[in-house]
Amino acid sequence: MSPVTTSPMARMLQRVPTPLRGVFPFLLAVPVLALVHVATAGAPFFVILSLTVGVNVILAVSLNIVNGMTGQFSIGHAGFMAVGAYSAGLTSKLLSEYGLSFLPNAVSDQVMFAISLAVGGAMAALFGFVVGLPSLRLKGDYLAIVTLGFGEIIRVIVQNTEVLGRALGLRGVPQWTSLFSCWFIVFLTIVIARRIAASTHGRSLLAIREDEVAAEAMGVNTTAYKVRSFVVAAFFAGLAGGVFAHYQSIVNPGSFTFVKSMEIVVMVVAGGLGSTTGAVVAATVLTLLPEAMRSLFIGLGVSADTAQLVDQARMPIYGVLLVLIMLLRPQGLFGTRELWDFGPFKLKGPAKLTAPPREGGPA
């Protein structure tokens, strides 16, 4: 049996850590998140900052399914976040008048919160299907223009709809988001993204990314797979929007502009297209960077007005960082690799693939 040389992508697909399989990750994550939730109950600043980081991680990891795994270029992810935020916000405002009498109030609220998030995610997934079905037949710049247009259409619609609060936004959304619920959704998003990448479905997505023509020639229904990845990414963007709405208590159209979409794209590209670990790290760093700079300037005695200017300059800073990354490391921080491909986290390589012997030849 002669060994067949495997590509880095094939080796990556075979190296899925055992801890990401089965129910083990959930059995570990739930008590850890519960302990962190209890330990940080008296630190509101930390909680708000962690919620902001969590929302951006969900958005970056979900967009990475489209831009990284499938190789498409979507720049309207904030539009799906807006759909999820407004849908979940409206649902929770209706459900807040009711409760489950056989449960404590706190538990009843979390059940209603879960229902609201499900509605928000489902509505975003529906919009993802409606937008993706015709537009994902396009490629490259054309797809980017369509997704950009979708994001702007959603923002203009909510800005001019009375029931959604128009430009003032949707107010009075119950503040049901907790650190536990937010980061459990983060954890769920990461696990599902990695399981998709390691599945047959994920292999088809990666084949489309590497060479769409070759994938189609091998029998992959490229349009169907691209639409599915778009729907999954939109669903999680809707969940992120629902989480965002329920800790801000107000949903404003200004939170879902083109700038927000580009922030998410920067996180995905900077982390490495196709790397879930890269998306998580980049989203965390780029979210904390403005706050760290503001704290640094205040610590150095700079006035609050100057610190505010620094906060407003975060997009130019993002742009400079992105240019530097593209010059120094075009593949992003992690490329297509994950955490378990490095240093002490590195897993042992898989057994080599073997090919059947040629007819009439030696094994």
3D structure, described in words:
It is a single chain. This protein is mainly α. The protein has a domain at about 25-255. Helix content is about 65%, strand content about 0%. The chain contains 14 helices and two strands, in the order H-H-H-H-H-H-E-H-H-H-H-E-H-H-H-H. The chain has helices at about 10-15, 25-40, 45-70, 75-95, 105-135, 140-160, 180-195, 200-210, 210-215, 220-250, 260-270, 275-300, 305-310, 315-330; strands at about 170, 250. Strands 1-2 form a two-stranded antiparallel sheet. The longest helix has about 30 residues, at about 105-135. The chain is globular and about 55 Å long. It starts with 7 loop residues before the first helix and ends in a 35-residue tail after the last helix.
SSE topology sketch:
Layout (H helix, E strand, L loop, with lengths): L7 H7 L9 H16 L4 H26 L7 H19 L9 H31 L4 H20 L10 E2 L7 H19 L2 H11 L1 H6 L4 H27 L1 E2 L6 H14 L4 H24 L4 H9 L1 H15 L35
Antiparallel strand pairs: 1-2
